[in-house]
């Protein structure tokens, strides 16, 4: 499978998801907290009642999904994207994110994409493979940057 095919699949499928970033972002975070309830402690909105309807969660989720969108758009210019992902890894280390959180986030991301694309029949094995590969690449750049800062501190 050519990398450009996967890039196209990721970018085309993202165009569907980005039509409702707030909803998908909230689903994404709620799934993270379902998989790993302790992850909620990393966030400032950890004590909010009725989390799913929280303006704080919505704001954060929207910002994160916007960042995912920028990364998706940047897949066609990897040389520019790599330093952005490295900086994101460093930034997340300062929030207490650890390397072991990446599989949880990846699982939540793929689940969220499946929820958003599946009803329209757009979550195909090829799209899932493209997103899985893309997530793996993102982790391969962010995780060393995150762990490098964590070890140094």
Automatic annotation (TrEMBL):
It comes from the Eukaryota. SUPFAM superfamilies: Globin-like. Keywords: Cytoplasm, Heme, Iron, Metal-binding, Nucleus, Oxygen transport, Transport. It is found in: Cytoplasm; Nucleus. Its main location: cytoplasm. GO terms for cellular component: cytoplasm; nucleus. Homodimer. This is Globin domain-containing protein. It comes from Hemiselmis andersenii.
